[in-house]
Amino acid sequence: MAEGGIVTAVDINEDGLKAGAKQAEKIAAAGGRHSFMVGSVSSEESAKKIVQNVVDQEGRLDALINVAGILRSKKTTETSLEGIVKLFLFFDRIQHCNLNGGQTLSLPLSFTLRLSV
After folding, report:
1. Domain segments of the chain: what residues?
2. Which of 56, 63, 71, 90 gets the highest tally of CB atoms within 10 A of its CB?
């Protein structure tokens, strides 16, 4: 961050962004800048908006570090059959974020990087 780094944190909801406030303070203390944005790496439309918003605000986007993921952990012996069914219904959302999210966000970024060269 001391070299002028700018970090944009993205989360699907504002509560997740609030959890990153302490990290943002560290970024600022190191001489960097930060911003927050609500968005979903699971959605192509949202991914395009995320990349475009960063480019519009900062003039460019040089790198992507994707740490998005959904974790639901519960022992099957500690839940009901209804809870297990809900987990399987939620599985599609988990897959879109954890498996597809990196690619979904990387695609619009690759076009932006290509245009900036």
Report:
1. 6-116
2. 90
Q: Determine phi and psi for 37, rounding to 5 degrees.
A: -150, 135
How many other CB atoms are found less than 10 A from the CB of residue 14?
A: 10
CATH architecture of 6-116: 3-Layer(aba) Sandwich (3.40)
115 burial type by CB count under 10 A (0-12 exposed, 13-18 middle, 19+ buried):
exposed
Distances (CA, A) of 36 to 28, 33, 54, 95, 109: 13, 11, 10, 24, 18
Reading the block at residue 51, the tokens are 């990349």
pTM above 0.90, yes or no: no
For a pLDDT cut of 70, what percent of the chain falls above it?
88
